[in-house]
């Protein structure tokens, strides 16, 4: 096919699709407004940092070591310390959910011992509380008894020195937002044409399947990238997530992943031919796997082997790794090249399958 007619057809159909986007305000809301709302809500709502730990303290002996622990907890902004006069009073506070952990210095035959009780209804938070309490106590021990003798262990956290969970959450949100907007934007395109009866008119024109495919992808690609730019602005200037790797890597990988999502949306739209069914299928087949199997919320290293196999058969996990390298670490050129090639392969695969939905045929 000659290039000039192809470009003419793509331009004309893209202009028609762009006018449709301007008339249909829901596409603008989905592509631009929804991403910035999600990154603000989730950025503040999702937080893996342990804060506002309601810790009760009962000192029966009032020993020097226990007093040092309590002072350390009271001066730590992550803890809200409440003192109780007796063990029974502290246990009642724990049972009534006034506190979520209780530190008791109790009498023993050899002097005193310290017991830590934690509300275990939320098992993950209980584990983090236990780690936070024992971490403060270990720091007190290090400062007062082991600082000048023996082997001293000095921990250092790389790539996220302050252990700020938002630095990890925000790149993950970009994965979720691009997945949702990309699949939802094109998930309604072909279905809308079939429902309104305009698809038959398009198939009767001399346009090629490639021109139809490009005209359905380019306007929504530009719209979704506008939403991505707003998300990146919020990530860098609002949440102050550093870009220690490469902005070019983040941009290129985002474009590749967006093409993957747009292709998935076109496939779903062409197969279902129903806007309602397409929207439901887009959430089920793209958003949920990206949320659960990208490593954003759940650590894939702790998942069963079968779940890891499913996760690494899907595109989101590779995009997530590229964003972590681009934002926080830099380097890792072998990993970057491997994941970029995998995303490129997915993009070619899904766009090839989407082109089948743009062939000049009317399915019975």
Verbal overview:
The chain has 364 residues and is α/β, with parallel strands linked by helices. It is 66% helix and 8% strand. The two termini are 28 Å apart. The mean pLDDT is 81.
Summarize the structure.
This protein has 364 residues and is of the alpha/beta class. It is built from 14 helices and four strands.
Characteristic key phrases:
364 residues, 66% helix, elongated
Bin the strand percentage. Answer: 5-15%
Compressed to H and E, one letter per element, the order equals HHEHEHEEHHHHHHHHHH
Structural category is alpha/beta
**Between the first and last Cα atoms, what is the distance in angstroms?**
28 Å
Main beta sheet: 4 strands, mixed
List the helices and strands and how they pair.
Blueprint: H1 3-23, H2 25-45, E1 53-59, H3 64-74, E2 79-84, H4 87-95, E3 101-108, E4 111-118, H5 123-144, H6 166-187, H7 189-196, H8 199-203, H9 209-238, H10 247-272, H11 275-293, H12 305-311, H13 316-329, H14 333-356
Parallel strand pairs: 1-2, 1-3
Antiparallel strand pairs: 3-4
Helix pairs in contact: 1-9, 2-6, 2-9, 3-5, 6-9, 6-10, 6-11, 6-13, 7-10, 9-10, 10-11, 10-13, 10-14, 13-14
């Amino acid at each position: 096919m000659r290039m000039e007619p192809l470009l003419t057809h793509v331009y004309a159909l893209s202009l028609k699709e762009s006018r449709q986007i301007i008339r249909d305000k829901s596409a603008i809301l989905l592509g631009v407004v929804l991403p910035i709302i999600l990154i603000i809500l989730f950025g503040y709502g999702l937080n893996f940092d342990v804060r506002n730990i309601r810790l009760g303290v009962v000192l029966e002996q009032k020993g020097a070591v226990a007093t040092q622990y309590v002072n350390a907890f009271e001066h730590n902004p992550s803890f809200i310390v409440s003192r109780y006069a007796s063990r029974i009073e502290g246990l009642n506070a724990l049972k009534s959910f006034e506190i979520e952990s209780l530190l008791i210095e109790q009498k023993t035959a050899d002097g005193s011992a310290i017991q830590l009780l934690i509300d275990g209804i939320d098992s993950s938070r209980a584990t983090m509380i236990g780690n936070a309490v024992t971490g403060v106590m270990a720091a007190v021990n290090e400062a007062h008894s082991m600082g000048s003798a023996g082997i001293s262990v000095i921990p250092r956290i790389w790539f996220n020195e302050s252990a700020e969970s938002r630095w990890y959450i925000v790149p993950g949100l970009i994965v979720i937002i691009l997945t949702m907007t990309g699949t939802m934007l094109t998930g309604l395109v072909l279905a809308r044409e079939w429902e309104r009866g305009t698809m038959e008119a398009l198939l009767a024109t001399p346009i090629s399947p490639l021109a139809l495919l490009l005209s359905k992808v380019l306007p929504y690609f530009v719209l979704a990238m506008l939403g991505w730019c707003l998300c990146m602005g919020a990530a860098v200037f609002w949440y102050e997530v550093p870009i220690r790797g490469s902005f070019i890597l983040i941009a290129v990988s985002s474009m590749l992943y967006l093409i993957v999502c747009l292709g998935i949306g076109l496939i779903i739209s062409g197969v279902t031919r129903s806007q309602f069914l397409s929207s439901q299928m887009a959430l089920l087949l793209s958003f949920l796997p990206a949320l659960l199997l990208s490593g954003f919320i759940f650590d894939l290293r702790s998942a069963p082997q079968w779940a890891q196999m499913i996760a690494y058969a899907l595109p989101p996990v590779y995009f997530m790794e590229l964003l972590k390298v681009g934002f926080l670490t830099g380097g890792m050129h072998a990993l970057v090249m491997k994941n970029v090639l995998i995303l490129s392969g997915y993009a070619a695969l899904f766009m090839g399958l989407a082109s089948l939905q743009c062939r000049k045929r009317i399915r019975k």
